[in-house]
Specification:
The protein is built from 9 helices and 8 strands. By secondary structure, the protein is of the alpha/beta class. The protein has 2 domains: 146 residues, HAD superfamily/HAD-like (Rossmann fold, 3-Layer(aba) Sandwich); 91 residues, Transcription Termination Factor Rho, Rna-binding Domain, Chain A, Domain 1 (Orthogonal Bundle). The mean pLDDT is 94.
Length: 256
Amino acid sequence: MSNIKLQAKCVLLDIEGTISDIRFVYDVMFPYAKKNMPSFLVENWESATVQEAVRSVASDAKKISVEDWLGALWKSPNSDALDTLLLHLQQLMETDSKATGLKMFQGMVWQYGFESGALRAELFPDVLPALELWKAKGLDLRIYSSGSVLAQKMFFKYTVLGDLTDLFSAHYDTTVGTKREVSSYERIATESQYDPAEIIFVTDVYAELAAATDAGMQVVGSIRPNNVPLPTEFTGLTITSFSLLNLSSLDRLSAT
């Protein structure tokens, strides 16, 4: 596979299957969240961030209200409300749901794991050199992942290579929309103040590549070990390593 030369102002990156092996996410991070979710809920039930996440979970599940779902006294610790929520979260985790409320909870549990040293994010070996090179060339690096912004920031702050948070200027999660919707990428372009054509999006998921393409972004498919193969209908650019992506900074396009 030969080098790919592209010009852009912004590089928007997925995480699992693109920056990090999908097995790290599924074999390390997800099991950690599942194992530690019960104790986290018991210890932090009355915190404002947890109760905000509870409301988000209820909204995702199309509940009439949190009170209708968990009971009028749900804000005070009680086993019935906690057990109902925990069962629901476990069911969501079993199906690898991308629901915003679940991602909020996972992010908070992972934060504890990263800060305690129990977790350290692993990256493909070609990633950091490429990110540093692109950054030095003046490209704006941003992340778009289904994991919460909190989880993303913890991931890059606590890597086996050290704190990498300074490399990125912004993070996006499902609060801007799901990754398979064209409008999500249009919203990111608007918020970042780039023309979509000035952005390169790299991911391993075909539906995300298609949505970003329809939004007007340049796209590159990520082919990594353990990824689900891209379908034959995807005929766009692909890479097996960031070292194959030769990027240079593009002069800003006129606003459209």
